[in-house]
């Protein structure tokens, strides 16, 4: 009887050992990644899983202190944070409508630990007061995706792009930045066609931020080919121009107009008569471009700001010296963006359309000086932009060889698939 019990006990013990061996074998067979914990959701350099995340936008009447006090932080602590952060971030400049994020502790009152403010889509300001108080500005990761597009004109270029679901910004860039002086886009012909290599911009991989840049383009207008390649001619000042396959600059030294979305409302006229003044001659030495209040005003050429102020009938205005011969002036601005001594590049925003000074409606009065005398820019034979230097020409021609090959290999087919090449952080700028 006793031996029978011993036998049963031995069998049970052996069974247990066998089970453990089986479990051991099963554990060893399970892949390691099965036990890897998933990564947390990261944004602004923080693991959001560690916090209670509160997102909102700045409302009218909100301030840094009001927001934190509303979220259970006492005034003495708020004052301490503001004092420590002021050298890095001016907390009084929060703009209505801009988003902010509060990272709060997972405690009973959800104590704020960090305030993050986004003045634009790319930048953000972090005021961290969890352990020690510190503030800094950073940027979200940016990705540029290179793409190609083709189109054939039936009525206009915007329609050709729209049919393919492409951004109309491509049309504006080709018309205003590349071919403004070589192709009249108001007189395109049915059958004209184009190819373009460009980059789209994405923030945080998923937020589309529009067309960033056009690398190269080919336009066939009236059976005549027009190549365009972007090339940096001055790395110190960041000046880039578009040149053709023979290294000839495609633009003039001056833009045709200082606003992109405006209309010519009054021309330069030394014999202008106005009924309000009894039809007396009141010379108009500027060229007026009507546009809505807030429209961006651009420098029409590279140069240095010599005046930026408000004065009499001119209202808010900016004056730029381009060289020893030419200067330009921009009147009636609502606001000015530049100050005396600033160097501006052609196309840079220098202010916004307004109605300051003597004006009957929103517009920019554009004045043009040649050798100290105001002239009509539309009657002047304006100089071409600076040609590429001989030392750069050889490098330019080598640079465009593979890009031209890429352009030439793009076929004009309606169903041509888009080619994409992911390019990270500022590799293309």
TrEMBL record:
CDD domains: M23_peptidase. Residues 283-377 form the M23ase beta-sheet core domain. SUPFAM superfamilies: Duplicated hybrid motif (SSF51261). The keyword rRNA-binding does not apply. Its cofactor is Zn(2+). It comes from Gaetbulibacter jejuensis. The keyword Transcription regulation does not apply. Pfam families: Csd3_N2 (PF19425), Peptidase_M23 (PF01551). This is Peptidoglycan DD-metalloendopeptidase family protein. It comes from the Bacteria. Keywords: Hydrolase, Metal-binding, Metalloprotease, Protease, Zinc. Residues 144-269 form the Csd3-like second N-terminal domain. It is found in: Cell envelope.
């Amino acid at each position: 009887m006793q031996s029978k019990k011993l036998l049963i006990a031995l069998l049970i013990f052996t069974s247990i050992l066998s089970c453990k061996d089986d479990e051991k074998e099963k554990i060893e067979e399970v892949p390691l990644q099965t036990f890897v914990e998933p990564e947390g959701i990261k944004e602004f350099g923080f693991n959001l899983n560690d916090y209670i995340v509160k997102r909102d936008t700045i409302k009218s009447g909100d301030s840094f202190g009001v927001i934190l006090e509303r979220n259970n932080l006492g005034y003495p602590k708020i004052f301490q944070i503001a004092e420590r952060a002021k050298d890095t971030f001016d907390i009084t400049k929060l703009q209505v409508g801009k988003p902010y994020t509060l990272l709060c502790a997972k405690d009973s009152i959800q104590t704020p630990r960090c305030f993050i403010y986004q003045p634009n889509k790319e930048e953000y300001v972090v005021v961290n007061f969890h352990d020690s108080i510190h503030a800094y500005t950073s940027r979200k990761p940016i990705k540029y995706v290179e793409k190609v597009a083709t189109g054939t004109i039936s009525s206009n270029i915007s329609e050709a792009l729209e049919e393919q679901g492409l951004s109309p910004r491509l049309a504006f860039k080709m018309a205003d930045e590349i071919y403004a002086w070589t192709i009249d886009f108001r007189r395109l012909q049915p059958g004209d066609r184009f190819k373009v290599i460009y980059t789209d911009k994405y923030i945080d991989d998923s937020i589309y931020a529009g067309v960033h840049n056009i690398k190269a383009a080919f336009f066939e207008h009236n059976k005549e080919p027009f190549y365009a390649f972007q090339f940096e001619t001055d790395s110190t000042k960041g000046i880039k121009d578009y040149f053709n396959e023979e290294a000839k600059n495609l633009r003039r030294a001056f833009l045709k107009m200082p606003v992109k979305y405006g209309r010519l409302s009054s021309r330069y006229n030394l014999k202008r008569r106005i009924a309000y003044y009894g039809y007396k001659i009141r010379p108009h030495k500027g060229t007026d471009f009507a546009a809505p209040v807030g429209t961006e005003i651009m420098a029409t050429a590279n140069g240095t700001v010599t005046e930026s102020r408000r004065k009499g009938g001119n209202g808010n205005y900016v004056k730029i010296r381009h060289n020893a011969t030419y200067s330009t002036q921009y009147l009636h601005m609502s606001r000015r963006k530049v100050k005396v001594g600033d160097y501006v590049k052609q196309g840079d925003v220098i202010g916004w359309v307004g109605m300051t000074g003597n004006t009957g409606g929103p517009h920019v009065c554009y004045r043009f000086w040649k050798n100290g005398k105001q002239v009509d820019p539309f009657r002047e034979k304006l100089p071409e932009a600076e040609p590429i230097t001989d030392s750069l020409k050889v490098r330019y021609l080598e640079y465009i060889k593979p890009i031209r090959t890429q352009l030439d290999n793009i076929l004009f087919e309606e169903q041509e698939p888009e080619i994409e090449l992911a390019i990270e952080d500022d590799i293309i700028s």
